[in-house]
Write a structure and sequence with these properties.
The complex is a heterodimer of chains A (223) and B (71). With 223 residues, chain A is of the alpha+beta class. Helices cover 40% and strands 8% of the residues of chain A. The two termini of chain A are 89 Å apart. Chain B is α+β, with helices and mostly antiparallel strands. Chain B has 1 helix and 3 strands. The mean pLDDT of chain B is 86. Classes of the chains: A alpha+beta (223), B alpha+beta (71).
Chain lengths: 223, 71
């Protein structure tokens, strides 16, 4: 029987079976039985290999997880006791499993009706409150306050506005007119036609001549 | 880290015929070999329309993955 080499087995699986799954493992077992050295596949998902000498290898990492997290391996788990203590056990987190024995108490119809009735009872006979709240809106009683506010705020503001208008009427605009006249003179200075001659065009550079048959050509003229 | 010794060492090459359920036979050339200290590897290459490069392509695939494992 062919000797078993776990490294050779993993290399073969990685090289020729890129999809990591139990199905592909079984296919490899059929197509290339020598690498498995007469062992048999078993385990909860069929990912373990038991050799005739009793050694056990786990051949798929995270066999029960998503396909993207699986990979081929040959981990000797011969001495792992099934169901024994997990050497990599996680610490207890803040969440605890629900007590399957516990059942939420069912609400009774009478309790709910009593709750609603109690809330409604508190709202009864309160029409007087609404009437008292609406009365100031219906009967306007603030005329005196309104007159006082006009006298205190709006009348002084009106007088101040009238004073500002009168001051503007008395302000001569002579200075403004003179300044505007000066602007016109400046504008007139920019109106004449541009009568300066155009500069000469820049001469085109001489590109030279490419070399031809028996002719070395001519290099471009420097600027 | 230096590359591991993955020298090919053939230990057996045999022509095999494996019967199928329909009575026909599959003819293969079976190579048993080592790559350095790793192995044995056993690869079967179909003998029908034999491709003499197929075996070495498989060997190179195995070598590339053994190098990764070695790192």
């Amino acid at each position: 029987m062919t000797p078993f080499d776990p490294v050779a087995l993993v290399a073969m699986l990685v090289a020729f079976y890129p999809i990591v799954s139990v199905e592909q493992l079984q296919r490899a077992r059929l197509e290339r039985p020598e690498y498995f050295a007469g062992g048999r596949l078993f385990g909860s998902k069929g990912e373990k290999l038991q050799l005739p000498d009793g050694r056990v290898f786990d051949l798929i990492f995270a066999a029960g997880g998503p396909a993207s997290g699986r990979r081929w391996q040959a981990l000797d788990v011969t001495n792992d006791v099934p169901g024994g203590e997990d050497p990599f056990a996680l610490e207890d987190g803040p969440l605890v499993p629900l007590d399957e024995e516990f059942t939420l108490p069912r609400g009774t119809g009478s309790d709910f009706r009593a709750l609603v009735a109690g809330e409604l009872a508190a709202l009864e006979h309160d029409d007087g409150i609404l009437v008292a709240a609406a009365q100031p809106l219906i009967e306007f009683t603030g005329a005196e306050d309104l007159d006082r506010a006009f006298g205190e705020f709006l009348d002084p503001a009106d007088e101040a506005h009238a004073g500002t208008v009168a001051a503007l009427d008395g302000d001569p605009i002579t200075d403004l007119l003179e300044t505007t006249e000066d602007h016109g003179r400046v504008i007139d200075n920019t109106l004449p036609e541009y009568d300066t001659d155009n500069p000469d065009d820049t001469p085109e550079p001489d590109p030279g001549e490419p070399p031809g048959d028996g002719d070395g050509g001519k290099p471009p003229e420097p600027f | 880290m230096a590359d591991p010794d993955l020298t090919l060492e053939l230990t057996k090459v045999v022509d095999e015929s494996t019967p199928k359920r329909d009575g026909a036979f599959i003819r293969t050339k079976t190579y048993t070999f080592y790559l350095g200290k790793f192995g044995p590897f056993v690869e079967r290459v179909p003998a029908e329309n034999f491709d003499d490069g197929e075996f070495m392509r498989r060997v190179e695939k195995l070598r590339s993955h053994l190098r990764m494992v070695h790192v």
